[in-house]
From TrEMBL:
Signal peptide: none annotated. Residues 5-156 form the Glycosyltransferase 2-like domain. CDD domains: DPM_DPG-synthase_like (cd04179). This is Glycosyltransferase 2-like domain-containing protein. Pfam families: Glycos_transf_2. It comes from the Bacteria. It comes from Candidatus Amesbacteria bacterium RIFOXYD1_FULL_47_9. Coiled coil: none annotated.
């Protein structure tokens, strides 16, 4: 399969270069698509070969960035895409596993973070509650539905294409998978937990919005 890696980035001037350099070193021929989501200062285009730079003129949110990257990739011949965060919390070493699962026929691949002593308690509880809630509503249990490290095939994109422009995107993908679970093959495997900033990520307000939107996903 021809696989593209999509990296949404917002104000990640300091951490992104190391992510790109390690990824390129490990996978010299893998197309990398960086979507600069309206950073206050446009992210400098590093002189690293094989990187495609896309930019939103204003901040539209993570969901919009993933969609921009997916639309670009699939329109340029990708058979599958891997989503990876730009702040260093996802280890590029794991990319090979995503590619292997896609090549074996999985439509969606979820990299779920292993719990560790460094994991904030509020995140552990929030992750568990979110997984149980989505399972009750949509019949699919993914132990870490908020993890942004995941992959999907071209055919799966047509089924799980999301409307969420911000942090609800990960949960909406799982919700839409639940609606088409008889048509889509999915797999989950553990990835290393790297918490760069324990306060970064989905807030309580974001979580409440996700829960309210989930009722719409159920009806739509």
């Amino acid at each position: 399969m021809k696989v593209f890696v999509i990296i949404p980035a917002y104000n990640e001037h300091y951490r992104l270069p190391a992510v790109l350099e390690k990824t390129r070193r490990l996978y010299p021929r893998l197309p990398l698509v960086v979507v600069d989501d309206g950073s206050e200062h446009p992210i400098k285009k590093l002189t690293i070969p094989g990187i495609i730079w896309l930019r939103h003129q204003v901040n539209l949110g993570k969901g919009a960035s993933l969609k921009t990257g997916a639309e670009y990739s699939f329109s340029h011949g990708a058979d599958g895409v891997i989503f990876m965060d730009s702040d260093g919390q996802h280890d590029p070493v794991e990319i090979k596993k995503f590619i292997d699962y896609l090549n074996r026929g999985s439509d969606l691949v979820f990299g779920s973070r292993r719990p560790s002593l460094d994991t904030p308690l509020v995140r552990l509880l929030g992750k568990k509650l979110s997984s149980v809630y989505i399972n009750l509503l949509f019949g699919v249990y993914i132990s870490d539905i908020l993890s942004g490290f995941r992959a999907l095939s071209r055919s799966a994109y047509g089924y799980v294409k999301w409307d969420s422009s911000r942090y609800g995107v990960e949960s909406e993908m799982v919700a839409r998978l639940g609606k088409y679970r008889k048509l889509l093959k999915y797999v989950e495997f553990p990835v290393e937990t790297i918490y760069i900033d324990k306060y970064k990520g989905v807030t309580v307000v974001d979580a409440l919005k996700i829960f309210s939107h989930s009722l719409w996903w159920k009806l739509s």
